Amino acid sequence: MHNRQAITPRRLWNSLRDYDIWPIYLLGLVVYIPQTPMTSYITLILKGVGFGTFTTNLLTIPYSVGHIICLLLLTRLSDWLKERSLVSMIQSIWTLPCVIALRFWPGTMTNAWGTYATVTVLLCYPYCHAILVGWCSKNSNNVGTRTISAALYNMCVQLGAIIGNNIYRADDKPKYHRGNSTLIGINILAILLFIGTKIYYIYRNKHRERVWNAMTEEVSVILWNLAE
Asked: What sections of the protein cross the membrane (predicted)?
């Protein structure tokens, strides 16, 4: 399938069943959930602890700047180390202490500046989205798979955002103990998924290398030309 072919149900199915990209879809679904509630409700939270509208708007500037800087640094670090899974995991490692503090610190949602500091550090997290999008593209074997995989990955991210926006509930106010406990569990799951994805791709690469080395030179040349 290439960019001059029409999409047919068969070609669509062949792209969807490329299970080597499924771990990245799962990462897209899970790893952004712990940051979503604070991203969506930060202005309401800051107003709830006593800040005015103008002050709240000013207080959102530092985390926005920090978030951009950390995103660029994380993406550059991934390119420099030639590592995606473990570098992307820094996002979840960064977030975990913050959600633990929000859950167990007695001043959460009552101490204005302490809550602001915790939320700001959380939202400065190094965003791994660019790394995972590029990883999804690199793991796609052709144009058709690449196009569909990018769409599916973004659908998983949006589905995760829907889940994340429903974790803080009205009956859990004002400290959101249940919601923050859920975020801690999801954050730990995200770390385990990054590690599991790393192990899976190491296994798959070794398996493919064994298959390739077992081929005759003539067969390997034919397959290489087909890939080109």
From this structure: 21-42, 54-74, 86-106, 112-136, 148-168, 183-203
What are the structure tokens assigned to 61, written together? 């500037």
pLDDT for position 13: 78
Q: What is the CATH number of the domain that holds 78?
A: 1.20.1250.20
pLDDT at 213 over 90: no
Question: Whole-angstrom Cα distance, residue 29 to residue 80?
Answer: 26
Core vs surface per residue 35-59: b (16+ CB within 10 A) or e: bbbbbeebeebbebbebeeeebeeb
Using CA atoms, how far apart are residues 109 and 113, in angstroms rounded to an integer? 10
Per-residue tokens: 92:
């979840």
Task: Give the pLDDT confidence of 148-166 residue by residue, as tens digits.
Answer: 888 889 999 999 999 999 9
Structure tokens at 85: 């899974």
Residue range of the domain that includes 65: 21-201
Provide the whole-model pTM: 0.88
CA 147 to chain centre: 19
Q: Is residue 70 within 8 Å of 126, Cβ to Cβ?
A: yes
- Other beta carbons within 10 Å of 142: 15
| pLDDT tens string 51-91 | 999 999 999 999 999 999 999 999 999 999 999 999 999 99
Q: Tell me if 191 sits within 8 A of 92, measured CB to CB.
A: yes
Six token digits for residue 83: 């590592």
What pLDDT is recorded for position 146? 78
Number of domains the chain is built from? 1
Q: What are phi and psi of 216, to 5 degrees?
A: -75, 165
